[in-house]
Write a structure and sequence with these properties.
heterodimer; A: Cytochrome C Oxidase, Chain A; B: 2 domains; 3 helices; 10 strands; about 35% strand
Chain lengths: ~525, ~180
C-alpha cells in the first residue's frame, strides 16, 4: 500500500515549476520546444524587419534611405538571422515538441543538454546583433563570409565568428539529442520503418548537421586566425587561397540547404495525408528519397561557385550531380500529389500551406535546375534570379512548412483551435503577396540586376517597385500570424484529442493539450 | 528513465559527439587535401619549381613549336608599389630555358616587404610551366624609394598539350610588411 502511494506521488509532483525560472531551468521537451518556437518567431520578425529595409531602399533607383554599407549589412544579417535564428530553431522546436510524442517517448533522451542547447541561442544572436553598435558596424560581406572581404569587417568581426560558433554548438547539441532520442527512446514496436516521416527526415537532418556544422566552425575559425593570429589559410600572400574558403564553406553550405528543407518534407508528409484522408503514398520511397538527397547534398557543393574558374570536367560533374537531386525530390513531389489523388480533400489552413508549399517549392526547384546548368549559370550567377530561386525554396518552402506545422499542431499544443477564418486570410494574403514579392525577381535577374547592391539601373525600376509592394504586404501579413498564434494560446474553441478527422499517429492519441509528461508508460504500437 | 537507459543514451551521445569532433578535424584536413588536389590537377594555376640542372638534362628542346608567354603584373588592394614585367611577352620553344625579369619600385617613404604570388592561365598548362628561379620564391624587401630588377628563369615542359599556344603568367604582389614584422 505504502509503495503504491509513493509511486503515485512521484507521478504527480512533476508538473511545471512556477514563474520565470521554469523557463530558464526547464528540461521538459514541450517547454523547450515552445522556447525554440517563440525564439524563432522573434528572430523571424527581426530578420523580416531587415528585409523591409532592403525592399524600402530598393523601392526606387538611387540611394535614399540607408547608406550602402548599412544596406550590405542588412542583406548579410537578414540571411544569418533567418537561416540560423528563425528556420533552424523553428525546426528544432518542432522536433522537440513532436518527436517524443510521435515515437512514444516520455521526453528527449538528454534533457539537460536540451536546455543548454536552447539557452545558448539568445546569447549567440545577441552577440551577432550587437555588432551593429560597434565600430565598423555589422557584417556586410554577405552571409557566406567570403574572404578577403569578410576579413575587412570592423571591431565586430570576432563577435560575428563567436556568434556562429555558438549557434553551431547549439544546433550540434540539439542534433545529437535528436539522434539519440530517435535511436534509443522509441516505444516498443515502433520500428524505424514505422516512424512518421517527420521523425525520419529529422533523423537524417540531424546527421547532416552533425557532419557539416563542425566544418563551418572550422572554416570560420580559420577566418578568425587569419585575421588575428597571422595564419594564411585564405591569404594568397602567405600561400593560402581565398577560393579554398568557398570550397570549405559550401561543403557545409550545400548540406545546410537540405537541413533547411528536409524537415519541411516531413511536415508536408504528415499534413497532406490528414487532409486528403488517405495514407501517405509511397512511404518507403519517401524514406529512401530523403536519404538519397542527404547523400547527394555532399557532392554538389561547387555548383555555388561555377564561375570561380573550374575545369570543364569539374563543371560537368557538379552540374550532373546537382541535376540528379531532382530525381529523389521529384519522387517526393509525385508522392504528395498521388496522396491527394482521389482523396476526400478539405482545405483547412495547414492543408492550404502544405499545398502552397508543394506548388511553390516546386517552382523554386525548377529555377534551381536552371541554375544547375553550368553554362547558363554564368549569366544567372549573383543576380536576382538566384535571390528569387532561394526565396521560393526557403520562404514558400521552409517557412511555409513551418507555418503549416504551426497551424496543424497548435490545437494539439494549446488545446485550443486557432481562428480558421484568420488563418485562411493569412494564407491567401501571404501567398498572393509572396509571389508579387519574389516572382518579378526572376525577371530582374534574367535582365541582369546584380544582388547585394543598394542601387540599380533605371530600367529595373518597375519590377522593383512591384516586388517592394509585395514585400511590404507579405511582411505585414505575418503580424496576422503572430496575432493568430497569441490568440490561440490565450483561448478558443476546445480541441479534441485527434483534432483533425483524418489525423493518425501517436501524438493524436494524447489529450489536447498533452500532459506535461506524456508516455511515461510506453504506448502500444500496432 | 532507468539507469540502463541513461547509460545507453550516454554511450550513444559519445558516439555521435565523436562524429562531430571528427568532422571539425575534417574541416582542417580539407586544407592539405585541397593543396594536394590542386597540385595533382594543376587547378588554381599554381606553378612548379624545379632544379635547373635536373631539367636541362631531362628536357629535349622542341624548336618546332613556338609558345607565346605573356607576363601580367597586378597589385593587391592597397599595395602601392610600382610593379611590372620588363617585357610584355616572349616567344619560347618548349624544353629551353629562358630568362626575363620584373621590376618593382617602392615609392613610399618607408621600408616594405612584398610577396608575389604567381598564377598561370590556362589552368591545364600550369603543370607544364616550371620556374628554376623566381622572385616569388622569397619575400622581397625594398627600402623606401628603392627599385629592383627581379629575375625569373623558366622552362616550358615539351609535354605541354598541343592546343596550348599562349600562356599567361600573372603575378599579384601583396604587402606582407606587417606579417613579417609580427613574425
Amino acid at each position: 500500500m505504502s509503495t503504491a502511494t509513493a509511486t503515485h506521488d512521484e507521478h504527480h509532483d512533476h508538473g511545471p515549476a512556477k514563474g520565470l525560472m521554469r523557463w530558464v531551468t526547464t528540461t521538459n521537451h514541450k517547454d523547450i520546444g515552445t522556447l525554440y518556437l517563440l525564439f524563432a518567431l522573434v528572430m523571424f520578425f527581426i530578420g523580416g524587419a531587415m528585409a523591409m529595409v532592403i525592399r524600402a531602399e530598393l523601392f526606387q533607383p538611387g540611394l535614399q534611405l540607408v547608406d550602402p554599407q548599412f544596406f550590405n549589412s542588412m542583406t548579410t544579417v537578414h540571411a544569418l538571422v533567418m537561416i540560423f535564428g528563425a528556420v533552424m530553431p523553428a525546426f528544432t522546436g518542432l522536433a522537440n515538441w513532436l518527436i517524443p510524442m510521435m515515437i512514444g517517448a516520455p521526453d528527449m533522451a538528454l534533457p539537460r543538454m536540451n536546455n543548454f542547447s536552447f539557452w545558448i541561442l539568445p546569447f549567440a544572436f545577441s552577440l551577432l546583433l550587437s555588432t551593429f553598435f560597434m565600430n565598423g558596424g555589422g557584417p556586410a560581406g554577405g552571409w557566406t563570409l567570403y574572404p578577403p572581404l569578410s576579413l575587412q569587417m570592423g571591431d565586430g568581426f570576432p563577435f560575428l565568428i563567436f556568434a556562429i560558433h555558438l549557434a553551431g554548438i547549439s544546433s550540434i547539441m540539439g542534433s545529437i539529442n535528436i539522434v539519440v532520442t530517435i535511436l534509443n527512446m522509441r516505444a516498443p514496436g515502433m520500428t524505424l520503418m514505422k516512424m512518421p516521416l517527420f521523425v525520419w527526415t529529422w533523423l537524417i537532418t540531424a546527421y547532416l548537421l552533425i557532419a557539416t556544422m563542425p566544418v563551418l566552425a572550422g572554416a570560420v575559425t580559420m577566418l578568425l586566425t587569419d585575421k588575428f593570429a597571422g595564419t594564411s589559410f585564405f591569404s594568397a600572400a602567405g600561400g593560402g587561397d581565398p577560393v579554398m574558403f568557398q570550397h570549405i564553406f559550401w561543403f557545409f553550405g550545400h548540406p545546410e540547404v537540405y537541413i533547411l528543407i528536409l524537415p519541411a518534407f516531413g511536415i508536408v508528409s504528415a499534413i497532406v495525408p490528414t487532409f486528403a484522408r488517405k495514407p501517405l503514398f509511397g512511404y518507403s520511397s519517401m524514406v529512401y528519397a530523403t536519404a538519397s538527397i542527404a547523400f547527394l547534398s555532399f557532392i554538389v557543393w561547387a555548383h555555388h561557385m561555377f564561375t570561380v574558374g573550374m575545369p570543364v570536367v569539374g563543371e560537368l560533374f557538379f552540374m550532373y550531380a546537382t541535376m540528379m537531386i531532382a530525381v529523389p525530390t521529384g519522387v517526393k513531389v509525385f508522392n504528395w500529389v498521388s496522396t491527394m489523388w482521389k482523396g476526400s480533400m478539405t482545405f483547412e489552413t495547414p492543408m492550404l500551406f502544405a499545398v502552397g508549399f508543394i506548388i511553390m517549392f516546386t517552382i523554386g526547384g525548377f529555377s534551381g535546375l536552371m541554375l544547375a546548368i553550368a553554362p547558363a549559370d554564368f549569366q544567372y550567377h549573383d543576380t536576382y534570379f538566384v535571390v528569387a530561386h532561394f526565396h521560393y525554396v526557403l520562404v514558400t518552402g521552409a517557412v511555409y512548412s513551418i507555418m503549416a506545422a504551426a497551424y496543424y499542431w497548435l490545437p494539439k499544443w494549446t488545446g485550443n483551435m486557432y481562428d480558421e477564418k484568420l488563418g485562411k486570410m493569412h494564407f491567401w494574403i501571404s501567398t498572393v503577396s509572396v509571389n508579387v514579392l519574389f516572382f518579378p525577381q526572376h525577371f530582374l535577374g534574367l535582365a541582369g540586376m546584380p544582388r547585394r547592391i543598394p542601387d540599380y539601373s533605371v530600367q529595373f525600376t518597375d519590377w522593383n517597385v512591384i516586388s517592394s509592394i509585395g514585400g511590404f504586404v507579405f511582411g505585414a501579413s505575418q503580424l496576422m500570424f503572430a496575432y493568430v498564434v497569441i490568440k490561440t494560446i490565450r483561448g478558443g474553441e476546445k480541441a479534441t484529442s485527434q483534432v483533425w478527422e483524418g489525423a493518425h499517429g501517436l501524438e493524436w492519441t494524447l489529450p489536447s493539450p498533452p500532459p506535461y509528461h506524456s508516455f511515461t508508460e510506453a504506448p502500444e504500437v500496432k | 528513465m532507468t539507469a540502463a537507459g541513461h547509460k545507453r543514451n550516454g554511450r550513444s551521445f559519445a558516439r555521435v559527439a565523436m562524429v562531430a569532433v571528427a568532422m571539425f578535424g575534417f574541416g582542417y584536413l580539407l586544407v592539405p587535401l585541397y593543396d594536394v588536389f590542386c597540385e595533382i590537377t594543376g587547378l588554381n594555376g599554381k606553378t612548379g619549381r624545379i632544379d635547373e640542372a635536373a631539367v636541362v638534362a631531362r628536357y629535349e628542346p622542341d624548336v618546332s613549336r613556338v609558345i607565346t608567354v605573356q607576363f601580367v603584373a597586378n597589385n593587391n588592394v592597397g599595395m602601392p608599389w610600382e610593379f611590372g614585367p620588363s617585357v610584355a611577352s616572349l616567344e619560347v620553344h618548349p624544353g629551353q630555358i629562358y630568362a626575363t625579369s620584373f621590376t618593382a619600385r617602392n615609392p613610399t617613404g618607408h621600408n616594405m616587404v612584398a610577396q608575389a604570388v604567381p598564377s598561370v592561365a590556362p589552368n591545364k598548362a600550369s603543370r607544364y610551366f616550371n620556374k628554376t628561379e623566381c622572385f616569388c620564391f622569397n619575400q622581397q624587401p625594398l627600402a623606401a624609394g628603392e627599385s629592383k630588377d627581379m629575375p625569373l628563369r623558366f622552362i616550358v615542359d615539351p609535354k605541354l598539350p598541343r592546343d596550348v599556344r599562349t600562356l599567361t603568367l600573372a603575378y599579384t604582389i601583396f604587402d606582407v610588411t606587417q606579417q613579417v614584422a609580427v613574425n
